[in-house]
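Students often ask why we bother encoding 3D structure as a string. The short answer is that it lets us treat folding as translation between two languages. Here is a chain of 495 residues written in the first language.
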Amino acid sequence: METYEICVLGSGSGGYAAAMRAVDFGKKVCIIEGGEIGGAGVKWGALASKTMWELAKDFAIASKRDRGYHCDSLTVDYQTVRSTVIDAIHEKQDQMLCQIEAFTAKSKKGPGILTLKRGWGAFLSPETVIVRGASHETEEIHAQKFLIATGSKPRNFPDIEVDQKRILNSDGILNLKEFPKRLLIIGAGIVGCEYASIFSNFKQTKVYLIDHEKRILPYEDKDISDFVGANLMKNGVTILHSAKLTDLIEKDHHLEVVLATDNDEMTKIEIDVILFSIGRSPQLSRLKLKNANIAPDEDGYLSTDKNCCIKNNIYAAGDVTHYPNLVNIAELEGRNAVKHMLGLRPSPINYTNMATSMFFYPPVAAVGLNEKQCQQKKIPYRVGFYSNVLLSRAIAMRSLNGFVKIIVSDDKKQKILGMRSAGSQVTSTIMSIAMLLDQAKGLRDAVRPIYPHPTMSEGIQECLRLLLGESVYKPHAFPEFVKIRTWDPDKGYRL
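And here it is in the second language, the structure alphabet:
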């Protein structure tokens, strides 16, 4: 039996980051992985889908005719797209494996403190796991501390079997042989809207987006949902709200779906492929958690404290916990868990101030509270809205579709509470507000830096100035593009 100081179950974003943090401290670490290096975030999630999103965006831009050039014979082949995505996946996996090998005793004269075990781990006791390889060979591993970072899998739709041919979840997108002529997506959360954006941008597929709620992205403010929905529909996507799948009939050459709407009307649609995007559930079934004296909660997740600890020597990070299924969150949790394992005091993760990027067309970025959350917390606030139409950089890029929306407390401190932004480059510019939120800064602190020109970040600067009554372009002159309003628990909205 081999003995380690730290054993990490899973090599996804949380597990890999944790293992490398343990290496920083010179600890002897074992990673156990039965699937592919990098987990869902690399193979099926963030990297794979965003590579496809970039290709779709490039195709959409190349198809435009407002830039002094156009192409009359632009074509795209799904197998080439698929090959490019797979190349990106392998590139990242090779980087991850290269670093693991660098810290083993077998290559590059590494220190020998990191070991990768191929196979599925299961607890025999709180201090021991058994690893079962692909050929059913077994090996026992003893460790002082364990981190469970086995990730998640797509949630199943009741009574429908996913064959990853015509009936897909997000893990099966790369199984397609060609662009489907008709694609129906069940679920209008982030992933569903992202794939609707991707396939509609390639202009090869008629996309239907089905959601059981009255609007897509229901956890966001209505203006964000409306913005994303309007752009999807402009791109040819048909969105059916308050609709439920009641039947799926497999025909020889197509699928037939039956949908029920909130007014009890039945709609029948013929499609080629259906994609289920109804969330994810933690992967814990192989672990035999009972042998470690721990159990998932009633929702199937592992409950952790502020230090990512489940119980005694066992920790968890990433999608197996209740926190958002995001790569950046999993990495932070894994790193914090290792620090606490070693008796250090990591700074608690502020989940409210996490920055997120949603790769629609155009993309949306978010950090901090939205208006809906402020109202639920009964926080009086002011909100400024500044359109990309007035930004020189957006004009130069011929990319006017988007805005910056910043929320601040309605008091003397004028503390920044949150931001929502849409349009080109927002996935990068969001970090300036994220840093200010983390430092609990107010408006005056935020406008002090000199913002570069011409850049999309100037939208943030002008929105902040707007909330101070100092914007270069005024609501009086551009009421459609420059707006400000106030909300308080007693009186509601005031202009």
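Translate back mentally: The chain has three domains: 2-153+281-351, 167-278, 362-494. Keep this in mind for the problem set.
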